[in-house]
């Protein structure tokens, strides 16, 4: 008999396959998913959960609620949702500028030795420690400090940005441009790195408020 929800462990966390056709609706699926995952909550806390299901079968509001439940209630570190293939066919494969696009949210610190890569934007609620590496086809936004290596716009998007509360990377790349962190004091305000006139520049997130 086909199972409604199949959970498989991976080196990064969990892969969860959901057969939406086996449920009467979203609410029933969510209830059973919570019950199933709650049993191993302490073991999987902080890891990444990848959901595999027909994303067109539930609304955007339900998708947002599902992410919040997995991150806040079940305490996963990151949630990966399936792509909407019908929508993707209408979009360019390479990011052409700074816009919302596909975004992966990571609610944990990226520790030394870890590597994270995503074909879209990455938002990290935490730090990027020295010795770690984060790469994205789009933008990288860090609600914390950056001390590892960060690469944005790796698919060729020179309009991508890297922003952080404290920007002190070992290596910083945007598109095909690279910069090393200067030997200077820790910035006292959020900063944004971007390409201007063919080179990477770093400026205050709110230039009218923060002055060098």
Helix content: 10-25%
How many β strands by DSSP?
15
Largest sheet: 6 strands, mixed
Elements, N to C (H/E): EEHHEHEHEEEEEEEEEEE
**CATH topology of the largest domain, what is it called?**
Pectate Lyase C-like
CATH class of the largest domain: Mainly Beta
Summing up helix and strand content along with how strands pair, one would put the structural category as: alpha/beta
Number of helices: 4
Oligomer: single chain
Q: Over all CA atoms, what is the radius of gyration? A: 19 Å
Mean pLDDT equals: 83
Give the low-confidence spans.
85-97
Number of domains: 2
| N- to C-terminal distance | 65 Å
Please give the CATH architecture of the largest domain. Answer: 3 Solenoid
Q: Globular, elongated, flat, extended or rod-shaped: what is the shape?
A: elongated
Strand residue percentage:
25-35%
What is the spatial order of strands in the main beta sheet? 5-7-9-11-14-15
């Amino acid at each position: 008999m086909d199972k409604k929800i199949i959970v498989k462990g991976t080196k990064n966390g969990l892969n969860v396959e959901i057969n939406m056709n086996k449920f009467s609706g979203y609410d029933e699926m969510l209830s059973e998913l919570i019950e199933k995952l709650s049993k191993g909550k302490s073991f999987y806390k902080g890891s990444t959960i990848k959901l595999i299901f027909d994303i067109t079968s539930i609304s955007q509001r339900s998708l947002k609620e599902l992410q919040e439940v997995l991150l806040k209630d079940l305490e996963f570190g990151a949630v990966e949702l399936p792509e909407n293939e019908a929508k993707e066919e209408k979009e360019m494969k390479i990011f052409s500028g700074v816009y919302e696009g596909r975004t992966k949210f990571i609610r944990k610190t990226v520790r030394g030795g870890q590597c994270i890569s995503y074909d879209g934007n990455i938002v990290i609620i935490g730090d990027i420690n020295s010795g770690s590496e984060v790469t994205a086809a789009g933008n990288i936004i860090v609600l914390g400090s950056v001390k590892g290596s960060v690469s944005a716009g790796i698919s060729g998007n020179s309009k991508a940005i890297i922003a952080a509360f404290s920007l002190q990377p070992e290596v910083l790349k945007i598109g095909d441009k690279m910069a090393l962190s200067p030997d200077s004091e820790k910035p006292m305000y959020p900063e944004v790195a971007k390409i201007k006139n063919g080179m990477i520049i770093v400026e205050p997130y709110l230039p009218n408020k923060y002055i060098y």
